[in-house]
């Protein structure tokens, strides 16, 4: 048996229609081969089954003599991320995943088409280390439109593999061992881990419900001669809080007075519902001491593309780029070209995005209230934090495990986002970056099975 597959000449250029047709035909051929090898060559299938069994036995033997896991001391305290744990449990129990913040719907067609075109046009080799010029320009254009600030795309913008890498490059490139960095808890879990890798000393300031306001006096007392930077995230994951103009002004004044840098994670800037997003770099005297971190994934529902960036004045960009060069060096080339197209989307795209997410938010928030949760205000992001204590479980981890196994819905325990887990033991986080049918189904399950 043989199958002939006629490939186009390597000099031909495939358009997106031809590429999709070829992909469908290839899948048919693969399925045909699978069928024929089972019916025509049963000995082949039997052989593969034997190999698989032998591999399983060998694997079992290896596990029985497995050596202890090894990890550097600076990462010993960090376990498998809570997102991985909860997503694995969701799959095991067939639960609806309102835990991890990735959409279950796809990004816009015009952006995906731009990526396909870039691949077909041969934009597939290493990109320039700090970004494809067209994307750097698009980022600068968008930043000017959003903040009024004019930045040099060649000297002040660094494209990274997602915002998580932008965070890592900033920490590793600008923080020295022993430097103090102030975080507002709860915080995105990569912050503490990356600072640990940089050898920093983390100082935590806890934001407490219901408003999660910044405790200004506590912040003032936390700043010392050893404070190198303050890391803020607005709109804020996991609480949905947006830092107010007054809070940002106070932080800015403290940073100028004490010669402290600010690293600001603004990946949810286009998901600001209750107030306008304010970028720290736009405040008087702050651009020169601020690294602004952002990404494509949240705004365009393309989290798997991992396109992020850091915007900073040249004297700070130097450190970011030095670290970036030895982390990933460069980011996916065709996706960068497509990202440039995305950032030049008309204003109507962003208006519609916010409108759609407001509708999703209303479904989830009203549903959670009807179930019996105490729901805290969420001004931005696609997250909502609730108090789970009406349901009688001892802490957030126990509640989330019960919710998955007995109710069939996933939430994230927030204690993992605090330096002191006790501070978050009463809170869990839900996400509404899912289609409306999924959100309604999750609410229905909780109404039916969750009793307080």
In N-to-C order, the SSE pattern is: HHHEHHEHEHEHEHEEHEHHHEEHEEEH
Average per-residue pLDDT, rounded, comes to 89
Strand order of the largest sheet: 2-8-7-6-5-3-4
Q: What oligomeric assembly is this protein in?
A: single chain
End-to-end separation: 64 Å
Secondary structural class:
alpha/beta
The helix count comes to 15
The rough form would be described as: globular
Based on CA atoms alone, the radius of gyration comes out at 25 Å
Q: Runs with pLDDT <50, length 5+?
A: 1-14, 26-59
- Percent helix, as a range, is 40-55%
Query: How many extended strands?
Result: 13
Instruction: Give the percentage of residues in beta strands.
Output: 5-15%
Largest sheet: 7 strands, mixed
Any chance you could write out the topology, listing elements then pairs?
Layout: H1 16-39, H2 42-64, H3 82-93, E1 96-97, H4 109-120, H5 133-147, E2 157-160, H6 162-174, E3 180-185, H7 190-198, E4 201-206, H8 216-222, E5 227-233, H9 245-258, E6 261-265, E7 290-295, H10 297-300, E8 308-311, H11 314-325, H12 333-343, H13 347-371, E9 374-375, E10 383-387, H14 396-407, E11 409-410, E12 412-413, E13 427-431, H15 436-449
Parallel strand pairs: 1-11, 3-4, 3-5, 5-6, 6-7
Antiparallel strand pairs: 2-8, 7-8, 9-10, 10-13, 12-13
């Amino acid at each position: 048996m043989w199958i002939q597959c006629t490939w186009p000449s390597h000099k031909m250029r495939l358009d997106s229609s031809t590429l999709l047709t070829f992909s469908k035909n290839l899948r048919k051929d693969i399925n045909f081969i699978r069928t024929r090898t089972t019916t025509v060559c049963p000995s082949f299938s039997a052989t593969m089954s034997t190999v698989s069994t032998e591999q399983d036995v060998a694997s079992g033997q290896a596990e029985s003599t497995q050596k202890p896991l090894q990890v550097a001391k600076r990462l010993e305290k960090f376990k498998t991320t809570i997102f991985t744990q909860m997503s694995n449990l969701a799959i095991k129990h067939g639960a609806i995943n309102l835990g991890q913040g990735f959409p279950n719907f796809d990004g816009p067609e015009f952006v995906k088409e731009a990526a396909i075109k870039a691949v077909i046009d041969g934009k597939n080799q290493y990109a320039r280390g700090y970004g494809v010029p067209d994307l750097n320009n698009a980022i600068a254009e968008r930043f000017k439109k959003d903040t009024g600030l004019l930045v040099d795309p060649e000297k002040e913008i660094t494209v990274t593999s997602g915002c998580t890498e932008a965070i890592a490059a900033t920490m590793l490139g600008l923080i020295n061992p022993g430097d103090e960095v102030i975080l507002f808890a709860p915080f995105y879990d990569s912050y503490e881990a990356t600072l640990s890798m940089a050898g920093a000393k983390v100082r935590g300031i806890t934001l407490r419900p219901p408003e999660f306001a910044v405790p200004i006096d506590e912040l003032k007392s936390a700043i010392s001669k050893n404070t190198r930077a303050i890391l803020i995230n607005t709109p804020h994951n996991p609480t949905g809080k947006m830092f107010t103009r007054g809070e940002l002004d106070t932080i800015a004044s403290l940073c100028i007075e004490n010669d402290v840098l600010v690293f600001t994670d603004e990946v949810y800037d286009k998901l600001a519902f209750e107030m306008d997003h304010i970028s720290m770099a736009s405040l008087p005297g702050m651009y020169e001491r601020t690294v602004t971190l952002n990404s494509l994934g949240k705004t365009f529902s393309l989290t798997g593309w991992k396109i992020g960036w850091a915007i900073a004045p040249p004297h700070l960009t130097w450190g970011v780029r030095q670290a970036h060069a030895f982390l990933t060096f460069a980011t996916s080339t065709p996706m960068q070209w497509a990202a440039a197209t995305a950032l030049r989307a008309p204003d109507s795209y962003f208006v519609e995005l916010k409108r759609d997410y407001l509708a999703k938010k209303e479904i989830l928030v009203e549903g959670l209230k009807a179930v019996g949760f105490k729901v805290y205000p969420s001004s931005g992001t696609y997250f909502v934090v609730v108090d789970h204590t009406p349901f009688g479980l001892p802490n957030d981890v126990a509640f989330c495990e019960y919710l998955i196994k007995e109710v069939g819905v996933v939430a994230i325990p927030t204690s993992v986002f605090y330096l002191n887990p006790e501070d978050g033991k009463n809170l869990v986080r839900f996400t509404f970056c899912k289609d409306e049918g999924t959100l309604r189904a999750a609410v229905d399950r909780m109404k039916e099975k969750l009793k307080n």
